[in-house]
Amino acid sequence: MSRILLTGSTGFVGARLQEVLSAAGHEVVGTTTGLPSDGRRYCNIEDRDGVAALMHEVQPEIVIHCAAISSVTAGRPMEYYRINTVGTENLADCFADVPARKRFVFVSTAGVYGNQDAEVLHEELCPLPVHHYGLSKFCAERVVQNYSGAFEFTIVRPFNIVGEAQNQGFIVPKLVNAFHDRLDVVRLGNLDVYRDYIDINDAVKIIAMLALSSSGRSEVVNLCSGKPVSLKDLIKALEAITQHSIAVEVAPEFVRRNEVWRLLGDTSKLARLLGGMPVLIPIEETLRRMLAARGREQT
């Protein structure tokens, strides 16, 4: 069993990941910038001295770094770099001084790819991020790689992780809520976009496997399903599940100037590192669970 420091442990991915790792018997110290509870520790990754003190106390063998500003549309551009890039530098630099260190797992984003000529995005492509979120994460990837002489690392590039408890500002929970509430109209941005969705439960299991496996050493790897799903496909699936139709209006305020039109990941390296691609949860099943969870919230 391993001693793991998990940043962002109250977030969408981090909270579920802590549950999975703890259930497997690992000693997990989760961090939060909110009020500490359930054994979690306060940690502001922008505060290098605070990070150093926590590293010294916990002496982790593995760091899994999930903490970040994750919204593509958030304002104040410099916050992306202070938190996503400089915060990662602080963690990596302090982890390098921990004698027990083994592996640093950085949860990056498929947003580093941007718009590419390739139909399917593989890890050897040169990143071309089109927004501050993707660019700050790519800078953080380079920071982690700069510490290759100090510790092993694995950089994971998740595509679109979806599931219960996801921030309502993201498109899938927004659509789920609209269909659950049986709205007549929903306002969206660009409709002709394709995304590669992966269920939260599959995502955290794979991150845990990569963190604990020697095969992920010094690798950058996509976390994806390899299946393109359009926004129109999502709407059709929700219509079939709920037997309800919604009119869609394109809202100018939701149309991104630098839209990434197609994000579809290559699963080849992931399958190789895992010893075969696992059977993934279909998007329809994820949508059904999200609808059910929305119903429980209102009872």
Brief summary of the model shown:
The protein is an alpha/beta fold and 299 residues long.
Structural notes for this entry:
With 299 residues, the protein is of the alpha/beta class. The protein has a domain at 3-162 and 197-225 and 264-280: 3-Layer(aba) Sandwich (Rossmann fold). 38% of the residues lie in helices and 18% in strands. It has nine helices and twelve strands. The strands form three sheets. Strands 3-2-1-4-5-6-10 form a seven-stranded parallel beta sheet, sandwiched between helices. A three-stranded mixed beta sheet has the order 7-9-11. Helix 1 (12-23) packs across helix 6 (200-212) and helix 5 crosses helix 9. It is globular. The mean pLDDT is 93.
